[in-house]
Amino acid sequence: MKELNNIRSNQCLDIARNGITVAQIRLSNANREVNAAMHRLQGVMDGLRHLVKRMVPPVSGKIRSDSMGDGEFGAPRGVRTHTDLDLECTIDEPVLAPHDSHATRLFWPYKEDKRFCGVELVSEYFISQIMYFAPLKDLVGKDVLAGDVLGTAQNVQDRYGPKMTRHIGWRLFINPVIFLEV
Questions:
Q1: Are 44 and 178 in contact (CB under 8 A)?
Q2: Whole-structure pTM over 0.70, yes or no?
């Protein structure tokens, strides 16, 4: 009965006359909220599709596959799985920004080997980490557009030997903050 106190008296009469229960009212309100959330989520997904269409690959090569393993996301690596995408490239090939973003930081994929570098790019919807390239001087802190040159590819064979195809690594995350808006 407490719930009925919140409903205007003429609505109470309609409820009594039509046999509508408080549970049905709650369900109706919940359905409206779910529909509104689904509509907002559809807007987010439409925005993501538009942004993905504007993305460019960081280098021109295909996904690496050689005697040392496959460069696909999720490929087996002993007890773990591969967490990025290896794209074949040549030494000193320009490495491009895959999406409009802000270069937030440099990182080193191997703590014990500072020869190989990576950069993190953050945008409203995506976070990219691209590694095994020499970044342009003063890249961090700058805004870049999809297709802008970030630096040049390094030679991963210096670490792994000639059996491994030269490549860059690319991780792409969806920025989860967009789902807080739904």
A1: yes
A2: yes
Topology of the domain covering 65-181: Glucose Permease (Domain IIA) (2.70.70)
| Residue 172 near residue 128 (C-beta atoms within 8 A) | yes
Query: Cβ atoms within 10 A of the Cβ of 133, count?
Result: 24
Provide φ and ψ at 128, rounded to 5°.
Answer: -115, 145
Phi and psi angles of residue 149, each rounded to the nearest 5 degrees, phi first: -75, 130
User: Residue 146 in contact with residue 117, Cβ under 8 Å?
Assistant: no
Smallest CA-to-CA distance from 68 within 169, 154, 168, 162 is with: 162
With residue 102 as reference, give the H or E element that holds it.
strand 101-107
Residues in a beta bridge with 95: 151
pLDDT digits (tens, 9 = 90+) for 77-102: 888 888 899 999 999 999 999 999 99
- For 13-93, where are the E strands, in sequence order? 65-66, 69-70, 76-77, 80-81, 85-88
Among the listed residues 52, 57, 81, 51, the one whose alpha carbon sits nearest the alpha carbon of residue 69: 81
Which sequence spans correspond to the domains of the chain? 2-54, 65-181
